[in-house]
Amino acid sequence: MLLWLLQHYGHLLEQVTSRTTGDSRVFLTARIATSSIIAFLLSIALGPTAIRWLKKRFRERIASASETLNQLHANKQETPTMGGLFVMAAVMLSTVLCADLCSTFVQLAMFVVICLTMIGGYDDWVKQRTKRNGLSAWQKLIAQMVTASIAGYVLYTQHSRDDYGAAIVWPLGNLVLVIGPLFIVWSAFVIVGAANGVNLTDGLDGLAAGCTVFCGGALAGLAYLCGRSDMSSYLSIPHVVGCGELAVVLGALVGAMLGFLWFNCHPAEVFMGDAGSLPTGGLLAVVALVSRQELLLAIFGGIFVVETLSVVLQVGCFRLTGRRPLRCSPLHNHFVFRGDNESRIVIRFWIVSALLAIVGIASLKLR
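The chain above was modelled as a monomer; its predicted structure follows.
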């Protein structure tokens, strides 16, 4: 909407142009900043009402497979959950106001966010309304794979038209592995993996939201650079026409997550739930796939990767040897079992996430 106003009201456009630098008439950097601020304010404004509404209907039920973990998290019982609903509402509203809705990439990002929010929301609803611990693993996986495969097909058709084609681009040296239609499978793997990585990380107050701010901020900067021919050429990274619009969407995500942290910091007034964690990871993955930097996402989102691998390691080692290398998985629960203060764990994970974002951005010059 903001872009439409700037393009259709000439007198306003001339006034804004006279006060801005550069020769762009789409004001991308201004829209990224505006999107972040609007999403933050929306999240702050919607939060109190949403929390009161959720408190009457959807409260966290502490019922993990570990009795010890249940005891350690007993104080979180009855905390409102599904806060991701108002976070994603803020993201979508801000995107509608600030992004170019004619962009195929923006439409794709919104599709993934809406679908994964619905899947996550239904999973949360099942947890609250039945004695089951949400949807079964296979039900969730199939629903996510359908959404991710549709997104992968759209990305495949879009990328098939550019210079790199349907390929995986290795960040160092821009080595290209052409995989053709298998790019759909690769895209689905990245989207589902990222969605569940954020979901596994969302176990302590503010942990997933804070890490998302750092990862999303770095990825937004990368999307902006990939969308500019001059900067992508200077950094020797793939230039993707229209990729910069996704920085507006990620700006909204970062702003909304900062607003959510206002209520989710320890002790949390509300939890994100699958309704927030799944679309968050899915959106990060879509932007990484569009910018041809999905492998760099593993650095930006290193915390999410490590949390996922910790679960795989725990289960794999137990099945092979009968022993568990961690006291409890995902990794953050290992430190909880060790007796570390929750706020200390979260802040240290934030510090590592920030450092990984810096390392990822710095690696752009290692070509």
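The first helix runs from residue 2 to 8.
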